[in-house]
Amino acid sequence: MTLAPAPRSEAAERVRAEVREFLAAELAAGTFTTHVDTWLSGVDPAFSRKLGERGWLGMTWPKRYGGPAPRWPRTGSPTGSPGRTC
After folding, report:
1. How far apart are CA 81 and CA 60, in angstroms?
2. Residue 52: pLDDT above 80?
3. Which of 5, 24, 30, 78 could form a disulfide with 15 if both were Cys (CB 3.0 to 4.6 A apart)?
4. 51: enclosing H helix or E strand
């Protein structure tokens, strides 16, 4: 099965830029290190709190279940591809 890329929009591009800027700043400050393990080896509550303050947790949850109103198309991810950080 081949899936088409999510359509681009100005709103999606703004969120992608916001996420990339945030992660670049966190990497530069040394408060975030990249690794992919789906939180199997632990979590960082301070970093998770920062994500929550920006409304970036539960972004795909429907509003009726406590999620935010979507700020980008429902398909794809805010950074443009799963696992991409910057």
Report:
1. 15
2. yes
3. 78
4. helix 45-53
